[in-house]
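Appendix B, Record 12. Input sequence as logged:
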Amino acid sequence: MRIALKSLLLVLLFTPVIALAQKNYLKDPMVRIAMSAYAAQIAENPQNYGAYYSRAKDYFRYGESELALTDLNKAIELFPANEGAELSQAYTMRALIYQKKGDGVKALADFNEALTLDPQSYYSLLGRADLLCEMGDYAHAQDDYQMLLRRDVRCQEAYLGLARAAYKQQNMGDCNEMLAKAQNANPSNADFYMQRGALYEEMKEYGKAADDYVSAIFYGENSKSVFALNRLSRIDYDAVVNSLTTIIESSEDKGFYYFIRATIHKNNYHYSASIKDWNEIVEKKYFYHNSIFANRAYCYMRLGQFEYAIEDMNKAIVMKGDDMSYYITRGRLYRIQGIFDKAAEDLAIAATFDPSNVELLQERGLLAVEQKDYESAANYYNEAIMYDAENAKSYLLRAENCLRLKDNEGAVRNFEMVANYPEEQPQMSSLRGFALASLGRNTEAEEWAETVMRVDSEYVDASLYYQAACLYALTGNKKQAYNYLEKAFKAGYGDYYDVYFESDTPVSLAPLRNEADFADLVKSYVEIF
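Logged structural output:
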């Protein structure tokens, strides 16, 4: 099997944030034309069920469930009686939306209606079976799966459904038997390995799940399987790395899998291991792409090797000079090294792409602070907040800058904006606890941190431990700070830059760095850097 460069480029989207905003589909001119056409058809004939149904299908495809539901309700109301098969599909789509919303009763009613209209509908029957299994009605779910098998003895989805039902009933013998039959039915089906991998994840058999996601890549499902591996690596990093190492040893397409493993290492803060894989790709000449050097530069930066990082960013920019993020990154590297004129040049170039970019404005503010131009920094932070009023980091940066300007009231107002921002569920990214601690509300800050750690306890993310350590360092609770910092190191948090250099915001270990206990703790985990 050979993997084309086109497939490889799918992985370039592989970052901790790997989903496009739902509204991005509206940027496609063809989508806008289609949506305008539907609206015109409906305006011309409000009884045009086909226009409502077609628009609902598009909304469903783009993840707009509520808009799809509204159009489906209207289409179903207007469908003529002689369009039974098409109407059956409309009910099935609406059932899937209700199922996603958690309304099993309405979903089941729609699946039943769909099957009444079209008893041979494969998707309606499979959908009902999966819903019944989800609702815990295993007997009726198994009846539907068996009906699918009577129609097609090689129906992998039915075998998988029976395996899932058996697992839910703790019948592991039947579960494993059905999984084996599912694989035998079509052993080269990438989607099967994705589904079985998801079931293995549910069973907490993470090694088997990782193997299946890697198999899905082998059989052609690149993007979804790579995303699944990245997600799984946050739960069981070693299982994912081991699976990728195994296929690297046996595959002809080693460069592709090195790329994935390097990215897994990077996203899990194992920067030295990531650099080794990027080096392997370059030295063995598997392929040559700007993303390799940009990724390796990021890893060098996190390890505090700034000169190597700049060298790689230079290469990335030569290969792709129209990537704004590259100039922001190189500008940050120059700022860290105190080369302020070059930092300003790079940030000015970045501004030619998008002067309203919040990350850019924050970085320009930080550069102004380094040069003690606090008024300019204030202007940049004001702009950042104007363009994104929900970015907590901008408020913290502005608050710290107010303190430099001797504007204590302004600092308090900015900290309070973050501290008082409503959270449905506490999470580190809100930075609320850091604002509370900066206001001297240490007890509230620590309670917030512990709530975050409980909420996220299912997913072991070393950065959470690191950020908790920063929070407790800020409140002065050094015992807990060291406790969480050691947990971060044990979980593989190999970010030397964060540990020794980061001080732009209160999310920092700066209060601990001059202590002997800090030096001793870091020294005992030096192998992770």
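Confidence is low (pLDDT under 50) at residues 1-22.
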